[in-house]
Amino acid sequence: MSRKKNHFFAMLSRMKYINRWALMRNTHTENISEHSLDVAMIAHSLAVIRNKRFGGNVNAERAALLGIYHDAPEIITGDMPTPVKYYSKQIHEAFNRVEDDACNALIGMLPEDMQDEYKPLFFKQSGDEELWKLVKAADKICAYTKCLEEAKAGNSDFDKAAKTNLKSLGEIDMPEVKCFIEEFLPSYNLTLDEMN
Fold first, then answer.
1. What letter does residue 87 receive in the DSSP assignment?
2. How far is CA 146 from the centre of its chain?
3. DSSP secondary structure string for all residues of 3-32
4. Model pLDDT for residues 18-30, shown as the tens digit of each residue
């Protein structure tokens, strides 16, 4: 008996072809596959910091998993630049509907018996609110570190984005984010030799 062909993982493998920061001149092009790994690692670290230092009890591994898949719909939608996505309430709401359709399309590429396992990674579930906050914070941290990397390479095109991202990071009322900013962010300005 032959089984139906399922395209989910082949589609996910295409994350490496979707570039971020399309409106900016980049010294190093960043794709959503690279970005998602960074977000997953930092979301995991934020959860660990919350649990170890601030009395939290969140699932760090699940935070990482949500980070891995958080931009997967962009395989279908492409990376919508932030100024466009948030240009107006109507555009943002329309984009959210398109993103939901993309998530449904991706889930539909899985065998039916696997769909329930993956759906909560694409659609926010009750009980995951704190984890999604960690992923969103990690996403902002990663946007800022991209700006730092571009500045180190002499690219001033990211200067305004760096200021905007740093300001929004300062407005996040989460002690684990402040801790990450103080303890880990300064190293992004160092060379490999300085870190060794």
1. S
2. 12
3. PPP--HHHHHGGGGG-BS-TTS--SS--BH
4. 999 988 899 999 9
Rounded distance between C-alpha atoms, residue 17 and residue 14, angstroms:
5
Q: How far apart are CA 3 and CA 104, in angstroms?
A: 21
Q: Are 181 and 57 in contact, with CB atoms under 8 Å apart?
A: no
Give 178-181's long-range contacts (Cβ < 8 A, gap of 24+): 179/49, 179/53, 180/42, 180/45, 180/46, 180/49, 180/141, 181/141
User: What is the average pLDDT across 132-160?
Assistant: 95
- 16 within 8 A of 33, measured Cβ to Cβ: yes
Q: In whole angstroms, what is the distance from residue 71 CA to residue 20 CA?
A: 11
∠ CA 119-77-66, rounded to 5°: 35
At position 141, the amino acid (one-letter code) is I
Q: pLDDT tens across 140-152, in order? A: 999 999 999 999 9
- DSSP code, position 2: P
